[in-house]
Write a structure and sequence with these properties.
Layout lengths: L11 E7 L2 E8 L7 E6 L10 H9 L2 E6 L16 H17 L7 E6 L1 H9 L7 E5 L12 H13 L4 E3 L11 H8 L7 E3 H17 L7 E8 L5 H10 L5 E10 L8 H25 L4
Parallel strand pairs: 3-4, 3-5, 5-6, 6-9, 9-10
Antiparallel strand pairs: 1-2, 2-4, 7-8
Helix pairs in contact: 1-8, 2-3, 3-6, 4-6
């Protein structure tokens, strides 16, 4: 366990063409020597800078790591979201562009989704050709004591009557992380979003319902991490859905002492290391398959 999570920026930036203009993408690691590409997708209220500690450690394992701000968050906080499908379109577009403008298309490509980002990743899983998926504290359903029925009804009512009116998220940063240095960082983070338009919340609910209803089969290996101290997403639903999921291989790692946002937990080094080991094992399997395949 580490005592402090260093969120000092070490990334570089590159521009990736998007439907509404160029997207600014954060990048870590050596493009020429990386053994795999990893794309991180953030959660509700978050943005790509929150991945700094996790991405830096993944890069130290020899990966080229990228992260971008989803529509409506971070540097794109002023972009209005009309449909949850725009989040999926963003992801599919970024993957396609990274494979063209970088060496990403010539090496294994892995998606990582955190909380709401896990929903977006799983929703896009059948549309994107990748070699594996890692999801952290997936937001298939909100924790019932936090995302109460009355809160959901309020969000729906707000979306119907005043879709652009912002609704406060039903939790504070105290439920996101136990790390006091991160809480201080978040308190000074001017582009985090603790309130979002009512329309966005209803689109998130639609996304959740769509993924839960359709999440039956994915054609790549999947690794899921869950946190033991969890009051933002519903772990019981996560475990139940994951048990039913059909995939070439799947693994569930439960971090008993960790809090919801594993990117911000004192165990982030262990999370990164175990994620990297899993990716490396999948790279080994890919190489074995290539070596055993008959030449065409």
């Amino acid at each position: 366990m580490i005592n402090d999570i260093d969120l000092t920026p070490t990334c570089t930036f590159l521009k990736v063409p998007g439907k509404a203009g160029d997207l600014q993408v954060r990048a870590w690691g050596d493009e020429k020597t990386a053994t795999a590409t990893v794309l991180l997708v953030h959660g509700l209220g978050a943005h790509s800078a929150w991945f700094e500690a996790m991405a830096r450690q993944l890069a130290s394992h020899g990966f080229r790591v990228f992260a971008y701000d989803q529509k409506g968050f971070g540097s794109r906080g002023n972009e209005p979201l009309i449909s949850y499908k725009e989040w999926i379109d963003d992801l599919t577009g970024v993957v396609a562009e990274l494979k063209q403008i970088c060496l990403a298309g010539d090496r294994p490509f892995f998606l990582m989704g955190n909380s709401m980002g896990a929903l977006v990743v799983m929703a896009a899983a059948q549309q994107i050709q990748v070699d594996g998926i890692v999801i952290y504290s997936p937001g298939f359903e909100g924790f019932p004591g936090t995302f109460t029925l009355s809160y959901k009804l309020k969000a729906i009512f707000s979306a119907l009557c005043a879709p652009l009116k912002e609704v406060r998220l039903p939790y504070s940063m105290d439920l996101v992380t136990r790390d006091l240095s991160v809480r201080k960082y978040l308190a000074n983070d001017e582009i985090k979003k603790m309130a979002v338009p009512g329309r966005m919340l209803t689109e998130l609910l639609k996304l959740s319902n769509t993924v839960v209803a359709s999440l039956k089969t994915v054609n790549v290996p999947v690794l899921m991490f869950t946190a033991g101290v969890e009051k933002i997403v519903n772990n019981a639903v996560n475990v139940r859905l994951f048990a039913k999921l059909q995939a070439p291989s799947k693994e569930h790692i439960h971090m008993n002492e960790a809090w919801h946002d594993l990117m911000f937990d004192p165990q982030v080094d262990e999370v990164a290391s175990r994620s990297a080991s899993w990716i490396q094992s999948k790279i080994g399997e890919i190489k074995k398959t290539c070596l055993s395949s008959p030449e065409t």
